[in-house]
Amino acid sequence: MDGRLLPRSPPTPPFLAPALRPPAAARGLSIAAAAAGRGGRRHPPPRPRRSLAVVAGASRCESSSLNTPLVPESAAGRYLTRVLQNQRQLFHVAVAEELKQLADDRDAAVSRVRLSAGSDEACLHRRIAEIKESDRQVAIKDVMYMLILYKFSEIRVHLVPKLSRCIYNGRLEIWPAKDWELESIHGIDVLEMIKEHVSAVIGLRADSSVTDNWATTHIQRLQLGQLYAASVLYGYFLKSASLRHHLECSLALSHQGHRVFHRNALQSPKIWPYGWNKLVCGRVSKDKLSLGQASIQDRNHEKLRCYVMGFDPETLQRCAKVRSREAIDLIEKHSCALFGDGKMGLISSDDVILTSFSSLKRLVLEAVAFGSFLWDVEEHVDTVYKLNDN
């Protein structure tokens, strides 16, 4: 696993300068018809399946539920893969059974270790418990990954396959973009911050033209992997912050007129990772906003961006920090599987990719959605199978 994707103090993603280039060739559709019956009647051609693919070499880079970057390694993960493909309506039932089985197995292992304490077999039982715990860690991360895939399937979006299969002659082009689907899962305030994030990290404005979207740029594969991982964390942060904002507004309504909220003046604490002080603050930071004491009514109408800017360092760190070690490992594994060389999972820092800004936007929007879904999945799994604190 390439640890460079989630460095402790990574630099702010650079502004990518565009170099205009005409759009790639349009997709071709193959139409087939078969004769049937004695009258030689023809059935209408099947509707072409829209698949995510590079412009050239599409047979090597097709997006589907069978072609995800990360392949489940455990029996539980492979079982849930089959259920998702063949018996989708039973998926959540199967997930609940797997989580309960994993939790029961862990409780049983802990009990055996306690009962054998002080005996001659204590060391043996402890070693067996460690091996089984390692297997359960693989299984629980596979279950979490399958839950994330299910959430993507609900909006009819497949994850981008391994980039090693999608790059043709050094060129990466992802189509269809699925921007609308990936943006549809967010609220208005969250979406506004995501659009500012996209503009900040790839330099593509929200009102950019078609020509701007299809303009090309060069970017190192390692830099692209770090950008993706940073966007996953940003999506995770926005989910946490937006839910906190909603909760405080709900509590404020129930206690209206009885208390006043105190807010700190905006600062740019050093703990903001990946240059978030620029991504979150945006233009508001120029106004040197200081909220001071705000009324309940003002707080209820406060935009998420302003709410986040009022966080003190402790609150910001609590919202930005990924809660479980399993979630951190899953981000690293997925990113390495997506951007790695396909063999060792290592990402070459010398490999330069030519791609369009539209494809960069697709990757960033997918990463933000992945982080948002990860927050939901982590919350759900932790209620049944206690995850390890990060």
Characterize the structure shown.
The protein is mainly α and 390 residues long. It is 50% helix and 5% strand. It is built from 13 helices and 7 strands. It has helices at residues 75-86, 91-115, 122-154, 179-183, 188-202, 210-214, 221-254, 276-281, 296-300, 304-309, 313-320, 325-339, 357-382, and strands at residues 35-36, 41-42, 171-172, 216-220, 261-262, 293-294, 352-356. The strands form 3 sheets. It has a 3-stranded mixed sheet. A two-stranded antiparallel sheet has the order 1-2. β1 and β2 (41-42) form a beta hairpin. α7 (221-254) packs across α13 (357-382). It starts with 34 loop residues before the first strand and ends in an 8-residue tail after the last helix. Mean pLDDT is 77; it is low at 9-59 and 257-300.
Mean pLDDT: 77
The biggest sheet, with number of strands, parallel, antiparallel or mixed sense and barrel status, is: 3 strands, mixed
Strand fraction: 5-15%
- Global structural class: mainly alpha
Count of distinct strands: 7
Total helical elements: 13
The parts where pLDDT drops under 50 for at least 5 residues are: 9-59, 257-300
**What sequence of helices (H) and strands (E) makes up the elements?**
EEHHHEHHHEHEHEHHHHEH
Radius of gyration: 24 Å
Query: What's the helical proportion of residues?
Result: 40-55%
Q: Identify the strand order in the major beta sheet.
A: 3-7-4
Q: Give the N-terminus to C-terminus distance in angstroms.
A: 18 Å
Shape: globular
